[in-house]
Amino acid sequence: MSDSPQVVLRRTASDAEKNPGATARRRRMIEVGLAILGPLVFLGLWEVCVRNDWWLDGRLISSPWEIITSERLREAEVWEAVWVTTVRMLKGFVIGTVLGLILGVAMGINRYARAALNSTLTALYTVPKIALLPVYLLLFGFDEAPRVYMIATVVFFFVWIYTMAPIMAVPMGYREAAASFNATGWQMFRHVLWPAALPQIFVGLRVSAGVAVLMVIAVELILPRDGIGYFVNRGRELGLPDNTFLGVLLAALLGIVFVGVVRQIGRWMTPWAPEDNSPGQI
Amino acid sequence: MVEGTSAPIKIAARGVERHFGADPGTAVHALGPFDLDVAEGEFVCVVGPSGCGKSTFLRIVAGLLRPSKGDIELYAEASSETPVAMVFQDYSIYPWKTVERNVSFGLELRGVSKKEAVERGRHWLERLGLADFAKAYPDTLSGGMRQRVSIARALTVEPEILLMDEPFAALDAQLRQVLQDELLDIWQSEARRTVVFITHSLEEAIVLGDRVVVMSARPGTLVQSVDVPFARPRTPELRARAEFNDFKNELWQLLKGEVEHYMEAVRATGATDGGAR
Fold this sequence. Notes:
The structure holds two protein chains of two kinds.
Chain A: E1 6-12, H1 15-18, H2 20-52, H3 64-68, H4 76-109, H5 111-126, H6 133-140, H7 144-168, H8 172-180, H9 185-222, H10 227-237, H11 241-269
Helix pairs in contact in A: 4-5, 4-7, 4-9, 4-10, 6-7, 7-9, 8-9, 9-10, 9-11, 10-11
Chain B: E1 9-20, E2 28-39, E3 43-47, H1 54-62, E4 69-77, E5 84-87, H2 99-103, H3 105-109, H4 114-127, H5 143-156, E6 161-165, H6 173-189, E7 194-198, H7 202-208, E8 211-215, E9 222-227, H8 242-269
Parallel strand pairs in B: 3-7, 3-8, 5-6, 6-7
Antiparallel strand pairs in B: 1-2, 1-4, 8-9
Helix pairs in contact in B: 4-5
């Protein structure tokens, strides 16, 4: 027994443990509140700056309020542009995803496929995709195809990497358990490799979803014919800032909705995978 | 050991309860009310059926989790840098750090320079037979070696209280016995500090502990606290003695009913352990 000074460490319930229900509700409310408040603060600052001519020039730049009260929102042209862009983006996303999954799986499973294709794909991956546009125009004509394929190309690379890597990383123990039951190659894939990799694959799909929105707008700005990107561009050319900013806002909304949808599909398809292991703070 | 000795109390748990989940329909009453006193320098082993909340209790002692009710007081020297250290069952040493950096991790978090921390960890590396693997990465080691790293990491911070959560559960039987013997020797010869040791193995509890605390099926409460009647220093040969087996059977009689309760609960609800991991 020592006579040196002592401290007492107490382990005791905090409010969170005493009222778990109320705490969970409060936490949820704070989260929802912050999710709404964040964008509102951003839009609010934008509004205030434009109105007072702080930093942003009100003659050139529309405020959020001007955008959402704009007559243009009621015009069919706007919604047609949204529709064209959405369809174009989805086509590119689906094509890129399917190809990315096929090559990602093949190269994740088969070392020879990996050896044959890895350096080629890595080389192509590093090429700035926008630089491919002239090539695509030559290859696929000037209509819808090169536009869709541009999006598909970008999506493809993300899905490919995010599929191949987790399949290669599936732990030996999972593989051996199935192998011990004499699983066929297809069974190994269907019951072990695919589900083990799926949560990571969905991380890739979420990244790709964002990039698909980015790419569809970029392509529409470079090849102006229709869609949200064209809408943005024409606003600039005709000196209609409403048009430009409405377009930017619509693109952002498209991004939020699309990434959210992909994420929700991921939750449904991987109910076993915890999305969040963190206690909320470091 | 608490009665009849003059050692001061080191850990005092009073009415500790823990519930998991906010929704009354699915909330689980995992632990308690549970009371326990642990004296300074005492080695207490806690046994109980799966899901009885023994790991939950240990995590509350460690401060990783708060109780829903009741409290635990730990009495530590004011000068102590890291009064409490914990050894986990698995997944707790870092694959991206070498063995010696894993061992010095606790000291580095205290702001000790890397060089000094590694130096201070060396003693425990050697004591646990890890000196030759100091620069190796954990993934190149066997499971037994990895758990030695985990123990060395905890001892390197010189904690007053050592918490061990089924540290040998993932090891094979022989290795398990080897590590039990090593821990017994280390504790008896130079690391005689307060220990709370969670285990499923009665044999392990008897070989190592001054006292065995038997917990009930979920929600875990104290069934009985039994002093281990074998004098120290003990040697591994203790296991071969007839009294050892008699005592083990005695404890099993206490525990058996609780394990049956647990099995009934599993059959009735399909639920397994509390998922504290």
